[in-house]
Task: inverse folding
């Protein structure tokens, strides 16, 4: 049985705040809207040689805060 080619859509946004010229912060958020290609499993890793094995049909959120200090 052939799985769907549609893996899903990702929406991402970020905000960068420069505290000084040598210190800045980045707040990043993304949401992956999973589609049938991810939930059924697809050969998407290692240049198509490894299957994800399938996931649940829940969407995924990713959030991080990064600080960069130049010296």
Result:
């Amino acid at each position: 049985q052939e799985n769907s080619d549609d893996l899903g859509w990702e929406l991402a946004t970020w905000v960068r705040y420069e505290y000084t010229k040598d210190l800045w912060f980045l707040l990043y958020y993304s949401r992956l809207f999973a589609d049938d290609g991810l939930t059924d499993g697809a050969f998407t890793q290692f240049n198509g040689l490894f299957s994800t094995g399938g996931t649940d049909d829940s969407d995924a959120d990713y959030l991080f805060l990064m600080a960069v200090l130049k010296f």
